[in-house]
Amino acid sequence: MDARMNDENVKKNSQPLSLRVPEPSGRPGDAPDFSHLLMDPAGVVERPEVGSTPYEMRDLAFRLIRVLDDEGNAVGPWNPRLDPETLRRGLKAMILTRAFDDRMHRAHRQGKTSFYMKCTGEEAIAVAQGMLLSREDMGFPTYRQQGLLIARGYPLVEMMNQIYSNAADPIKGRQLPIMYSAKDYGFFTISGNLGTQVPQAVGWAMASAYKGDDKIAISWIGDGATAEGDFHNALTFASVYRAPVILNVVNNQWAISSFQGIAGGLETTFASKAIGYGLPALRVDGNDFLAVWAATQWAEERARSNQGATVIELFTYRGAPHSTSDDPSRYRPGDEHEKWPLGDPLDRLRQHLTVIGEWDDERHATALREAVEQVRAAGKESEAIGTLGQSRPSVKTMFEEVYATEDWRLIEQRREVGV
């Protein structure tokens, strides 16, 4: 009797459980609201020694490394003090990347390709890191790092041939458009299975160290894909074996239509996920070319001196749709990108170069025009070979580069096809 009465009292006094589903600060029709963001002023975050322990520098996982202030000045201890020519090359590479994106997006609308993904607003990340690291270091990118190839001078025609899946496609029709592969340019084949590139990068770096080589690896993953088990498995191996790898989390606020809070971005920063694995973490303004360069340089030095991996959260905003299959106006305020408090990476580097007297409106107009002309010329050359459905790799390539030695089954299949 007493037990039953006790159970009834517990039921009366207990509260019903509720499930929280995170919601973004704005939906279509709302005014953009970024008041919740954690951002330091430019130049105030300290730069630790490369040999600092993760514990000593753990607060950097919650700060924001910035170099360029609102007036375009480079300030603070993270200023990499790049020479003007390097800065100009960086700006021109970002301009060219955006021009390439614009043409390829239009090509999709014209039915010339089945798919495309722009990196608008994120150009500083891939361009700065692509310029800084060697081609012999291996990059394991996602689908928004086309700036790596463009900054390193990879032929635009080859990129277009892959996007059009034409007869000159360097991957011979075996990949979706924009999933490039260029070993000679330090660009590992993109995988559509999100998260897989991070353990691959760690494994590659471990192999490099095991062989006594001097090459490091670098990977990129979106904020949403950090919820994949592959990301956490990779952090474990990177920490235990001190793999010489840089692990980038590109927090562009949206994983298709899911905002970054669904992957835990409201609870803590993505950089702070490194702390539990005993890894150093840096949180960086991803729209600041100089800050991206400086943080990557710090992580590179750490990796090359056998001090292991670094996790870098690159804080940015995906300005364009997730892909040509996406309509962001259905899930976020239409003008949210324009109101992003960290601005546009091209505008900010242009402003800095102008402030130091190494750029002006005339040179900027010339750079824009030359980028468009370069992309247009590459487009004409690639489209002369063929766009989607107009030409395609030979059927015989289906049997090549799969097995080292053909067995009787492949020989018979080739015979049946007539190649």
From TrEMBL:
Enzyme type, top EC level: oxidoreductase
Record EC number: 1.2.4.4
CDD domains (UniProt xref): TPP_E1_PDC_ADC_BCADC (cd02000)
Catalytic activity: N(6)-[(R)-lipoyl]-L-lysyl-[protein] + 3-methyl-2-oxobutanoate + H(+) = N(6)-[(R)-S(8)-2-methylpropanoyldihydrolipoyl]-L-lysyl-[protein] + CO2
GO biological process, one term: branched-chain amino acid catabolic process
Cofactor requirement: thiamine diphosphate
Ranges for region Disordered: 1-32, 320-343
Family matches, as InterPro entries: Alpha-ketoacid_DH_E1_comp, DH_E1, Oxoisoval_DH_suAlpha_N_dom, THDP-binding
Domain called Dehydrogenase E1 component: residue spans: 92-385
Domain 2-oxoisovalerate dehydrogenase E1 alpha subunit N-terminal positions: 15-54
Gene Ontology molecular function: branched-chain 2-oxo acid dehydrogenase activity
Keywords assigned: Oxidoreductase, Thiamine pyrophosphate
Start-end of Basic and acidic residues biased regions: 1-11, 324-343
A Pfam family the protein falls into: E1_dh
This protein's record includes keyword rRNA processing: no
Function: The branched-chain alpha-keto dehydrogenase complex catalyzes the overall conversion of alpha-keto acids to acyl-CoA and CO(2). It contains multiple copies of three enzymatic components: branched-chain alpha-keto acid decarboxylase (E1), lipoamide acyltransferase (E2) and lipoamide dehydrogenase (E3).
Family membership: Belongs to the BCKDHA family.
Protein name: 2-oxoisovalerate dehydrogenase subunit alpha
